[in-house]
Amino acid sequence: MPSQTVLVINSGSSSIKYQLVDPETGDALAKGLVERIGDPMGVITHTHGGAVTEEEMPVPDHTVGMREVLRLFDTEGPTLAEAGIVAVGHRIVQGGRHFDGPALITDGVRDLIEELCPLAPLHNPAHLKGIDVARELMPGVPHVAVFDTAFFQQLPDRSALYALETETAEKYSVRRYGAHGTSHQFVSQEIAKMLGRDDLKQIVLHLGNGASASAVRCGKPIDTSMGLTPLEGLMMGTRTGDIDPAVVFHLERVAGMSVGEVDTLFNKKSGMKGMTGESDMRSVWAMIDNDDDPVAQKRARTAMDVYVNRLVKYVGSYTAELGGLDVITFTAGIGENDVHVRRELAEALSPFGVKIDVEANKARSGEPRVISAPDSTVELVVFPTNEELAIARQALAFA
Ligand code: AMP
């Protein structure tokens, strides 16, 4: 067991995800998930040293959930005495204008996170539950908030502001905050190290169930695709990404849909899921490969064309914003694993001299790797993101 570890907590409305991280190596020494908090029956899964413990029990609230997690550390290991936790890092979705970096959680910081609940009504209240119970149960170590929006607080006004009437925008804090910032920052910094250059013009494509793109120049973000909320930008597993805002008024007028219904439609029932019935890219590719169902096949192929075209648009516009491009990095579930999406994007960019190495692209590996041909105008890199490690390192600085 290393001498110093950080417990990383991601507290959701009905779940607590946790990982004990060695901030030196990035190893996950133990991890787990409390699910269905508040339901009649909850589930806790704890993994340590290859052994998985799963327990079903009622978990009425986050306090009980966190107590059970600490109990599992002591019964299944590593015990809290041997774990050497020097800090707890809390993932927070929305830090608004208040936080451009990690913050030691004091009562004042806690209140600011609470103040930001209207901007992240599903996430920040759930984070606060995790913060309150973890601070109570582990009072002896610093608790650090790491914000998903912090990196993008450096965005220039030209990309952070919407062309909305200024008074309304300011009064209601309407601007681009971005999301997945911890991942975009981590990956762009690691790419600069990997390629040995701090003057890179980079595009990072974080393609998971939620998906976002960022443009980073000399280590600073200059644009990102998620906006006031994580709905804007790329097409996602269940979210529309960019859509004409007038669709909201149109659906209200012609379909009698309420704002709440359109919110659910855009966030939960659209994207890949809405266009094909499946949100997982593996299932969508399976539909594309299935000649026995030509109707589903065509629908899936069209949805994939929309997905890739959105990527092409963002890469094109970000290249112009960056004034050139050195590297595109693919990360998260789809970015790291979907060979076809990477190839189709590279093919669409081939008129600009982008060349993928077909064999390198196909190779299965969990390691960072270059997948472009040596004579490509832009380097293409696959880099596994590690948000827990990034949070652990930022929290360690306060220990
Ligand atoms: P994330 O949100 O980063 O965990 O990414 C989850 C998504 O990654 C899933 O919904 C899948 O669409 C995608 N994914 C995971 N593994 C693969 C794979 N081998 N090939 C294609 N897509 C994958």
Automatic annotation (TrEMBL):
Pathway(s) it belongs to: Metabolic intermediate biosynthesis; acetyl-CoA biosynthesis; acetyl-CoA from acetate: step 1/2
For this UniProt record, give its keywords in alphabetical order, as a comma-separated list: ATP-binding, Cytoplasm, Kinase, Magnesium, Metal-binding, Nucleotide-binding, Transferase
Q: Which Gene3D superfamilies match?
A: 3.30.420.40
Q: List ligand-binding residues for ATP.
A: 17, 206-210, 280-282, 333-337
Please tell me where Mg(2+) binds in this chain.
10, 387
* Record carries keyword Transferase: yes
Q: Which PROSITE patterns match?
A: ACETATE_KINASE_1, ACETATE_KINASE_2
Please explain the role this protein plays, according to its UniProt record: Catalyzes the formation of acetyl phosphate from acetate and ATP. Can also catalyze the reverse reaction.
Q: Which HAMAP family match?
A: Acetate_kinase (MF_00020)
Question: Know the name of this protein?
Answer: Acetate kinase
Q: Which organism is it from?
A: Pauljensenia hongkongensis
- Upper lineage ranks? Bacteria, Bacillati, Actinomycetota, Actinomycetes, Actinomycetales
Q: Which gene encodes it?
A: ackA
